[in-house]
Amino acid sequence: MRYAFEKKVMSFIREQELIASGDRILIGLSGGADSVCLLAVLQRLAVELSVELGAFHVNHGIRGTEAERDEAFSAELCKGFGMPFFSVKENVPDRAAEWQVGTEEAGRRVRYEAAERIAREHNYSKIALAHHRNDVAETLLFHLFRGSSVAGLASIPAKRDKVIRPLLCCEREEIEAYLEAAGLSFCTDATNGETEYTRNKIRHRIVAYAKEEINTGAVRHMAQAAAELAETEDFLAKETEAVCNAAKELTDGFEVSVTALTEKHKVLQRRVVYSLIGRTAGTRKDITKEHVEAVLGLLDGQSGKRISLPYGVTAGRDFDCLFLKKEREAAEEAVPECCPVKVPGNYPLGTAGEFLRFRIFSYQKNEEIPKNEYTKWFDYDKIRGTLCLRTYCQGDRLGLSVGSKTVKSVWVEHKVPAEERNRRVLLADEEQVLWIPGVRCCDNYRVDAGTTTVLEVLRNGGEIDGSEC
Q1: pLDDT tens readout for residues 259-297
Q2: If exposure means fewest CB atoms within 10 Å of the residue's CB, which of 206, 379, 431, 444 is most exposed?
Q3: How far apart are CA 402 and CA 59, in angstroms?
Q4: Closest by alpha carbon to 123, among 54, 199, 197?
Q5: Helix or strand or coil: residue 249?
């Protein structure tokens, strides 16, 4: 039985390309059945996979002596397996109050933050979590009941960035059977049997009923549906991006052909409008289906009609043009003439609601450098004098691999309208411009083999639409 289970997990790892030879994998270990199973299976497969393993545990500061027991058990288990163990203690109720979220959500954030920090500090290339098919089914229902897009119903992915989930091919009963066959003990969280938390209600009252009274394969079928929805979401996301990229970018928004948009399926129309509202506003928070439908109503309306949306965004139709524009006043007030940057710290970008977050950390050799619009890394030791956020100055230059280029010529290349340039915020030191947000970075401050300290700049906290599970 143990061999069949391990073979199943190995096949899933290879099928989903979760692990590469030479990976250093950090395993989330709560001490519960799921995480103990993940630890044991990866330990058994480690030689065949050619990987190194470590584990981390988060004490949430909620269950008193029971939490201390779980931590001690996890530490002893790792000692027995001969692998590194990292422990973090955090007061989750305090974090929940600070962040104004529920205890479940605060705990999730704390765990992911701890995992990312430990992986970075100890050079782990992957973070393995013990989610399984039952978690997929429960998350699908949780998002469905609360109201969700296709992305939310796609539930939990097998991999996202560094995070991998090798047990998504297994159900909870299989995990418990494996542990019994292997003679492995685990800790039981007393709160798992309570129905105070929403997910526990779904697990014990809804999923259990579905398996017992409707179909014994309910969990498997819901997991299959979630996988198909994930593929559907991936396709729709690419189609949406293609249409949005074809939209004309304005000084303060976007415009798209009414004819071109009405030729698309209604599903794609909604997604495109939602995305363009978010890009114009600088955030998708509080943008609802009602706002999207109101904009779509302009497609059948008369030329000249206008509607108001959140964050000072106006949508309207002029002949065959559907446009979304944002009022400029709030953005102009936020633009700093020259604002010295203290690290760590948060600073307004110059568009209402947008900000830059700065921090520094030690660079681990061969660490993967982010390649997205929202996260930028610079070699901190190359910065000269005071770092600041400011508006354009005559003669500003951007360093290249060879030589440099004027910021003005960069703007021309990227078709930044002349009337907008003096409102753009630049990140600069006392010698040159490091970054024109949304346009391009300099080349000679890049992280390289000689880098020891990284300056990380996150646009809007580095968040990309969608949520982790």
Answers
A1: 989 999 999 999 999 999 988 888 877 788 889 999 999
A2: 431
A3: 50
A4: 54
A5: strand
* Phi and psi at residue 167, to the nearest 5°: -95, 10
As a CATH number, domain 247-327 is 3.30.465.60
Residue 454 has pLDDT above 70, yes or no: yes
pLDDT surpassing 50 at residue 149: yes
CA distances from 159 to 17, 46, 91, 137, 163 (A): 9, 19, 28, 17, 6
User: Are the C-beta atoms of residues 126 and 23 closer than 8 Å to each other?
Assistant: yes
Cα–chain-centroid distance for residue 408? 33
Residue 331 confidence class, pLDDT cut points 50, 70, 90: very low
Pairing of strands 313-318, 355-362: unpaired
Q: Are 29 and 57 in contact (CB under 8 A)?
A: yes
Q: HSE-up of 282 (CA within 13 Å, CB side)?
A: 23
Give the separation between CA 29 and CA 108, rounded to whole angstroms. Answer: 14
Nearest to 141 by CA among 25, 80, 229: 229
Q: Are 218 and 210 in contact (CB under 8 A)?
A: yes
Question: By C-alpha distance, which of 99, 94, 126 is closest to 22?
Answer: 126
DSSP string, 11-23: HHHHHHT---TT-
Q: Are 53 and 25 in contact (CB under 8 A)?
A: yes
Q: Looking at the DSSP assignment, which residues form a beta bridge with residue 183?
A: none
Mean pLDDT for the stretch of residues 242-269: 89
Contacts of 297 (CB under 8 A, 6+ apart): none
228: which strand partners?
none
- CA proximity to 19, closest of 113, 175, 156, 125: 125
Query: Phi first, then psi: what are they for 50, rounded to 5°?
Result: 60, 55
Q: What span, in angstroms and rounded, lies between the C-alpha atoms of 265 and 255?
A: 19
Q: How far is CA 26 from CA 31, 57, 372, 446, in A?
A: 15, 10, 24, 28
> Could you tell me what percentage of the chain is helix, strand and coil, using 3-state DSSP and rounding each to the nearest 5?
45, 20, 35
- The pTM (predicted TM-score) of the whole model is 0.60
Residue with structure tokens 């970054």? Answer: 435
How far is 448 from 214, CA to CA, in rounded Å? 58
Fold of 2-219: Rossmann fold (3.40.50)
Whether residue 428 contacts residue 396, with contact meaning beta carbons closer than 8 Å, is answered with yes
Distance CA 213, CA 350 (A): 57
